Amino acid sequence: MDRRGDSEALPSLTGMAPATIVDAHMHVGDFPLFKVRMDEETLARTLPHYGIEAAMVFHPDNRYVREVVQRVDGAYGLVWANPRVPGFLEEAVELLDHPRFRGVKMHPLLDGYHPNDPDIHPLIEELVARDLPVLVHCGHPIFTLPWSIEELAVSFPQAKIILGHMGHGNVVYINGSIDVAERNEHVYLETSGMPMHTKIAEAVERVGPNKVLFGSDAPFHEIGVEVRKVQVSGLDDAMVDRVLHRNSRLLFFGDEAASAPVAG
Q: What residues form DSSP beta bridges with 76?
């Protein structure tokens, strides 16, 4: 089935408890390899439909993302950084000067590099200087297993590193991601695409209440399903609230009550 996101009606939320959400992991644009798409118009309708007050969105075409986040209320960009592309560092630095870009996305699996490749180090240094996070796809061999990303974390103990999908669908990699975040205070976990809802509560218990972030991975995953996974994880209401939005507000905006970046 071709799960295109630019022409379909949004699903009904009947029976789903309303939630306030900041989404740490969304895609915009076309991803033909996976036969999914979320165009600008659909993104603009999706955010209020699900109660998403802010969303971190990205696509390999960073210029396209810049156009989208400038026009869609609540959309903020993460720079897609691929060290195999000439000029990637200069492009990233330029975009990080834009107030609607709040960090970097790395996808070593698709782009074919080790997370701790020396070519990426200057960008991580730039993020440390700006106090902005990097979200790294996590959960698949050969380049995105949690222990490979931990090598980057050990090299840069001041960097804020998010393990996207917190290990994804393999319990060995999920447990490994929780272990890595428990060992490294500056490593965070993001929930999208990880199917074991009780692991969200385990992660909060083991790594701390401020280090687990909600993500949907839309349009690759359905947002309502991803929200419900947090709601039934076994966390109390206050911690559900923290995972769904407060932790991302703190990490991306500098204050857990902020709806936009806090001026430094």
A: 56
DSSP secondary structure, 115-181, as one string: TT-GGGHHHHHHHHHHT-EEEEE-S-TTT-SHHHHHHHHHH-TTSEEEEEGGGTT-HHHHHHHHHHH
Identify the DSSP state of 244.
Answer: I
Domain boundaries, the chain: 19-253
Q: Do 124 and 152 form a contact (C-beta atoms < 8 A)?
A: yes
Q: What is the DSSP letter of 227?
A: H
Query: Model's pTM, two decimal places?
Result: 0.94
Report whether 135 contacts 165 (CB < 8 A). Answer: no
| CATH superfamily for domain 19-253 | Metal-dependent hydrolases (3.20.20.140)
The alpha carbon of 6 is separated from its chain's Cα centroid by a whole number of angstroms, namely 21
So what's the pLDDT on residue 262?
A: 79
